Each structure stands twice: as structure tokens, then as C-alpha cells.
Amino acid sequence: MEAPQDIPSNFENGFKPFLKSLPDDTIVYVIYIIDSKLADAQIRSRLNIVLQAANVLIKKYLKDYIWQRDDFKLALKREDGTWLLRGRSNFGDSSADEWLIVYLIRELSKQYPDAWMRVSDTDGEFLLIEAANALPKWLNPEIAEHRVWINKGELRIIPMEKNTSSSRNLTVKQALAAISSSPSTLIHSSLIEEEAFYRIRDHPKAISETLHYSVITIPRRIAYILHEKPSYISAATEAFYLRDPIALRPLQQDSPSALTFPPTDFISTSIAFTKVGYAQLKSQEFPPPQSWQNQLPKSASAKEATGVEIGMKLSCGFEMLVSDPQNQDKKDVREIMLLLEDIESGEESLPTDKQIQTWSHQDDNDAWLDINYEDFERELAGKTAPKATKKETGPSAGFGDKSAQENLRKMVERFEAFMNDEDAGAEGINMDDMDFDDDEDDDEDEEDTDEEDKDVSFDEQEFAKMMREMMGMPPNDTSSAKELTRKVEELDSDSDDEQEVDEIRKLSERMEQELNESGALNLDPTPRKVRATKLSNGKGKEKTSEDSGEDSEDEGGEVDIDYNLAKNMLEAFKGQTGMAGPAGNLMGLMGVRMPRDEQDEDDK
């Protein structure tokens, strides 16, 4: 079968060999047993043992976990005469779900040395995309399919064949044969592995950090349903978040009693959200629909009002979920309707106020949603932050959560590396054989376009200058100052009025002094290296990578290059309003996946 025509030239563009078979936001995971001594029936038995071990891991780590869409599930299958375990999960907007699956697969591989596992998603070999900066030159997207495997908790890569005239992708059979015949030749690089598994470095501790508990006000029927199975909240949240005018029709009724979940009999209780789901509910503007007009309970404080508003949004999500005919065959909807039928028939009863008081009342701080740009600047600069109060000290101190901070720093590091790479210019790119398009195309229009492109010139220095200005980085030269000096020299040689020349010279010196103070004439194009402040055990103790002397200079008004770069990059991405644009494309080339845009408070 012929390879797709539009394969990107590097991993940071993404690699999509499964584009025709996988929907968006989907991860596929496969497990093989490779042991030449085992017969076919023995391999099947071995896989059943691995399947049981996977269920043990699920019970161990995922007891209270809430998936955004699909959960982790393996099934025994037979493909091309080989037994294997295969699973597929749609993780939606929650990349945490995808990386949790990677963690489970890696932990499973540690228990069974003869089990060889691989993961891929809509982008293809996404583990290599994560490790793009550490990959050898020969390992490009055109030959990477089926070469990346996880065994004994390590990342293994099948090397390129020595006796082949051209590079090519491997089929599954070829990959399994290579592993079986010569497993010792597989490449294991600690650097590649560290980059590929970077996002699961804090697992399993990070698993519990994906949930957010909040006290909200909701109808008693919904509280009962969520108490029976907390995972129903994901489907209801998504129904609200992806709503359309047709889905809103049931909520436009004049009579609230006609609703499946009428806005009556309210209670306040703690509900477990995924962080993605909580952000989706809180961030959207949604006035009460017709059926909820004048039905909301009164709030004594701003915090209670927030709980009432989120509860209203969640209740509307449940109503849209069960009312949409397209959802009637979904497992969650069928189960919810059965619970409601049991209540109507009297087989089950709604919880009393006394019972609800015994439930959890955990109410987490949602400061992780906010980014304070002053804290953000200090974090990047490695400066000592002001002493935090008891309320501010802890996991919520600083801007966003720890993961957001580290992702932003990594974005800045990759962009700086890109801008300072002397080999990354238009004339300095090192091309290998796989970077050239070897497809034959006789289209005359394309040939005409190529001839026109020859007349187009590219000014590399001008492009670099524009990029640096856009990102808030310092200029790479002092052409303005040199031009001013040249004019002074001309005046000095041609003018007979020495007094006028002295005045111009003094003016030039003052201008140069001001430019030096602002850092505009800094001849060192390399951005200064900084480390972010680290919090120790959430107690507000901080470590800095710069001495107090350097800090005092920074506080004297020097522009923080890293801060400006990241701030301008995020603002440029936000300006795309969720659509494709130069900022998103540029960061995509460097392997940075930008978050979805959220509307600022000022825009509301």
C-alpha cells in the first residue's frame, strides 16, 4: 500500500499514519507476547494473565478516577494469525487520560519481560513527537511506524536495516520478526526515554491531582445519581460544553415540572470533577434558561453564588444529555434512566438531608485556574517572591498548577533554542534523503509555480529581526546606534561649527546611555539562562538559581526576556481565537501543544 502523500518532514509537525482509521483524540494500545518457545495456545493463556494484571492495576490506581470519555480497557483479539491484547480510548480534551494510559502500559510491561507493547494516537508515534529534540537524524516519520516499543518499562526502538537500499516503514509482522530474531540490537537511549516519558514522571502521585472537588448546589435527584456513580459527571459536562440550539430546546419550556431534572429540591454537596470538566463549566457564560428563571436558590456569599451557578450549568448538562435522542443508546444514559426508574417505582429512595450530611464536603481551592503574570514573571526569572500568607501558601500558590508552570518554561526553552540555532536558517538546514519529495507529478501548473518561486527572495536576517521583535527579544545588532555614530562622524569632518558637533555628540552619548540602561544595545544575542523558583513541600520555602546581586540588578528595571517571549507568544496564540495561525503553527513545529483558549474576565 502506498504511503500517504502529505507526511510531515519532522516529528514536531506530527506523524499521522493512522489518519484514515482513527478519530481525533484517540489512543490505541497493543500488547504482544514474543517468545519462540510458546505455542499458540500458551501465548493466549499468557495474554489472559496479562489482562488480569491490567485489571489489578486499574483497581489499584483508578479506584476513584474519572475519565473524560473512554476508560482504559484491553480485549483479547486474534489478528493475522497472532493473539494480542488491544484497546482504544477516546480521551477528548483531557491529555491527562492519554498519558495515564501510557503509564499503565509501561507499568504492565515491567511485570512481564516477554510482553512487548506499543502506543499510538491520531498523531501516530506520539512518544517520538515528545522526544523529537533527542532523536537521531535517521529516525524520521517516513520510517518510524512500528519501530517504537515498550518492554520491561523501557523505550525500545528497532534500528534501520543495514542491507536495505532505501528507508521504509515496517509492517507489524516485520517489527515482531525483528524483535524475535534479534532483541539485543534494539536501541535504548536514556535521553530519548526521559523525553518520551516526561509527562508521566510524577505518576502515580499525579493521578489523584487530576480531580477537583467543589461544593455546588444541585437538585437532589442529580446528587443521588452522582453519588451512585461519580463518573456520570463527564458525560453531563460534555453535553453542556458541546451544546447547540437543538440541545437547548428542552430547557426552553415554561413549565419546570416537565423536565427530567426540574430545578427544585436543591441541596449542597461536594462533587468530584475532572479539572478539565470543572474548567469547562466555570469558564463559559450561560444565563439561566427559560425553565430555570426565578428558580435558583438565593446565595449568602460570592462563593455560594459560584456553587449555585456551576450547579445550574451541570443540571442543564444532565437535562440535555438524557433528552437528546442521539444519546439514548449510550451506556451512561441507559444507566441513568434505570436509576430514575427505580426511584419512580419506589425500589430506591432519594437520600435524606441527614444522609447527605454524612457525605464528603471537600471543597478544593480553584486558584489553579488563574495565572498571575507577576508571579509568572518572578517564576521564570528565579526571583524570590514576596512572603505568602497562610491562605496563599501551599499547592495553590503561584500561577496555575505545577504542570502549567513547567509547560510554559519548556515552551520558552524550545523557542529560545529555535531562535538561537545557527543551523536553522533558510540556507543552513541540513537535508537528508527523506526530506525530499520523491513523488512523480506531471502537473504543468505545479511546474509553473516552481518557476515563479525561483524569483522570490528570502531575507533571513530581516525575518529573524521581525521574529525577535514580535517575541519581545532583544535586537541582534545595534544598527541604529552605528548609523547615528556615522552621521556624527560625517558632521565632524564636514562641518566647521565645532560647537554644533559637540552638541550632537553629547546628544548621541545621552541616547546611547539610555539605550544601554534599557538593554537595547546588549550585544549578546543569547537570552540569559534562568531557573524558576521552586516551592519545597508547599511551605513557601524557595530556592533560587541566581545570587542576590543579580536579583537586585534585575529589580532595577531590566526587561525579562523570557517573560516577554512567553507572554507575547500566548497573546499571539490567543489572537487566533481557536483557529489556525502563525503562533500555533510555529509552536507546533517545536513540539509544543498549545492549550485551548479561555476568555479573559475582562472580555466577559
TrEMBL record:
<dbReference type="Pfam" id="PF07093">
    <property type="entry name" value="SGT1"/>
</dbReference>
<feature type="region of interest" description="Disordered">
    <location>
        <begin position="380"/>
        <end position="404"/>
    </location>
</feature>
<protein>
    <recommendedName>
        <fullName>SGT1-domain-containing protein</fullName>
    </recommendedName>
</protein>
<feature type="compositionally biased region" description="Acidic residues">
    <location>
        <begin position="547"/>
        <end position="560"/>
    </location>
</feature>
<feature type="compositionally biased region" description="Acidic residues">
    <location>
        <begin position="491"/>
        <end position="501"/>
    </location>
</feature>
<feature type="compositionally biased region" description="Acidic residues">
    <location>
        <begin position="420"/>
        <end position="461"/>
    </location>
</feature>
<feature type="compositionally biased region" description="Basic and acidic residues">
    <location>
        <begin position="502"/>
        <end position="513"/>
    </location>
</feature>
<dbReference type="InterPro" id="IPR010770">
    <property type="entry name" value="Ecd"/>
</dbReference>
<dbReference type="GO" id="GO:0005634">
    <property type="term" value="C:nucleus"/>
</dbReference>
<feature type="region of interest" description="Disordered">
    <location>
        <begin position="420"/>
        <end position="560"/>
    </location>
</feature>
